[in-house]
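User: Structure tokens for both sequences below?

Assistant:
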Amino acid sequence: MASRLPVVHLYTYMAEPLQECLLKLCPGMTVKVVGSNFDSLVPSDPAPEHVAALQEAEVLLMDPNLMPPLMYQLPRLKWMQSTWAGVDSMLKHLDKTKPIPNYTLTRFGGVFGPAMAEYVISHIVNTERRAQKQWENKTKGLWDRSGGIHEYRPLEMLSVGILGVGDIGKEIARCCKTFGMTVWGMVRRELSQDKQSPYVDHYRKFSELPEIMQKCDYICNVLPSTAETRGLLNGNILENCKEKKSVFINVGRGDVISEETIVNAIQSGWISHAILDVFETEPLPAISPLWKMPQVTITPHVAAVSIPSQVAEMFYDNYQRYTKGEELKYIVNLENGY
């Protein structure tokens, strides 16, 4: 191990609790809080004193949406650890006319799977058991078993198509399979047997997406935002859901599908419901027609959130690897975006 432990610079809305957690894990670590208490969705430009402090950083733990104005201003940076699983808010600002930054970027990985799976399973159960309708009946003092409340489908009768079977998608698949669902998974390329999850019954490639939509009661998007996935579900692709009247769940990235496409799919009767945690524009504008559609469930990007203690544990594991010169976990290819 190196004789000197690298200083960790924090530039994140959760800086103070992160600092506390890191010092419990490694009392000998030097942790410098450069900035904190940022709006997690709408960051402001960095203050000059923040820029000056960050230019001294070798190791940086920060929110990726704060990075765009700093991307080419940190000459000493060797490793940036994101506090989020997704880093598209940073990568979409890469300047194609400049060389790719030479520091290593790692994402917050290996943690969000269970939370995402809880979100997906809970919304499937709520949908099948007509939870919203039962709540409305309760407020009216109605003992009413109509409207599908009595004729619900057990989970083992359902099929789910998971678009993106990385670490998060695999965990969603595991939980769905635990309840007896038939699981379909969409991946970029053919997987060898040893790379396949035992919880996915049927694997299909991107080009075979229409088949997944035709076969599944629920379509769950977990894809990141990349050049390959942006707008992937736009247009009439959801027309393949019309026989099943599938429910569309999006916990991946909002730019995979346009708001217009979702509205059209519902109005055309191709899908019966949309459960949305991510959107093209966040916060979702008050004028969006999605707010007023009864066939749409909206949550404010909370399917899985970064919890300081979990971020600290994952970072510390990578920090130990860094100080030993070992390969880091969850490295992001800056060119590919994943």
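Moving on to the next sequence.
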Amino acid sequence: PTRTRAPRKTASAFAPTVHLPHTIPPPAPLRALTAPTVARPPQRPASSRFSLRLSLLGACTLFVAFAVAATAPRACLSPLVRTAVTKNEAIMRKRVAWVDSLHGAIHHGGSRNKRLIKKNKYVQLATTAPDGRPRCRTVVFRGFLTDSKRYGECAMTFITDGRSKKILDLKENPMAEVCFWISGVSMQFRVSGKMHVLSAESGDDEALRIRQDMWQRLPEHTTAYCAWPSPGLPITASPPGDSKGSVSETEESNASKRFKSLAGQLSGGTPGPVETASPGETDGSPSSSRKAHNNFVVLILEPDEVDHLRLGTNQARWAHTLREDGSWHVTECTP
């Protein structure tokens, strides 16, 4: 029998029939659970967040540092003489312009820069010798007196050996002048007035109290030089018959040993035996604290004239004069 071929299906014949369902809205419970889209706030960049953390850390560090500084013990400060800012000095600085300027110049590098503050306290002290010759030397400014009515509110303190030549000069003429030169701010302060000598022979109770307070405030290696032989005394005698004063090798060796021992004392080391200034002299023992205390002298300058000079691009000069009522008169002068 003849087979009849089935008709060939086209591609359209194999296409599935797609029935699109009607769009049905979701039920009410499902629509309620669907969370709305919330826009997130813009995030800070990583570098900005890191800077903010550093700023907060720095603020906390400063707060802790100020808290520690405010509660730190101030045993190193004495009730009469001190170098830091106290209540009495703050009051005095408001009343006396040159004291405020001097304090600011000395501490211009910050109160923590102790090396710079120490350097700014080296001053030149000028006196007049009994024969009329001027004499000048470098001393260390030890601060103002705070509660002494006898020497005034601007009294300045220094220390020295009672056997030095400046004591003889001041006994003959008590007028003296000190000069500050502070290179960091290009300022010069010349302070002149009457110098008071507070020694172990001072009969005044206030003078003895100030002297003892200063002695207890200073470290031992600072006052040890008061037990050495008299300042300016030759270390060894010249060889017999030598009119030119030449020194032999033995004497040079003795002098070297002596200065090495004194240098060890200044640096806080163990002091060794110190040779006397001349044969037969027995007063050269720096280990004697009693002798050092007897030779220890406090100098108090009672200012009555101050010359304040400022150099640099903006030069200026002021003359401060003490009045009879205790106030200061200020006059601006030509530099």
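User: Anything stand out in the second?

Assistant: Residues 91 and 100 are 10 Å apart (CA to CA).
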